[in-house]
Amino acid sequence: MDTTHVQIRHQLEAQLDRLVHRIGEANGDPRLLPAGRLEAAAIKSALTRLENGTYEMCTKCGKEIDPRRLMAFPTTATCLRCSI
Ligand SMILES: [Zn+2]
Hints:
The chain is mostly helical. The chain has 4 helices and no strands. α1 runs antiparallel to α2 (about 35-50). The relative contact order is 0.14. It binds zinc ion (ZN). The site of zinc ion has 8 residues, from α4.
């Protein structure tokens, strides 16, 4: 895993920590829970893709995701074309 991936991973793990904390605090709040869970799932999936080396690959078409897109949306799993 290269330096960039380590940085992204730390960033995602911190984000997930904060999110889990927020979900815990918002326990029972029906407006926040679904969005929070979706976001947590997206972060976990990005972490898995980082680990198995498919982080830069679009999960729909298999092509490389634009690095600028990944920089802006670190949890994105698809390229711009497939996200539309
Ligand atoms: Zn794609």
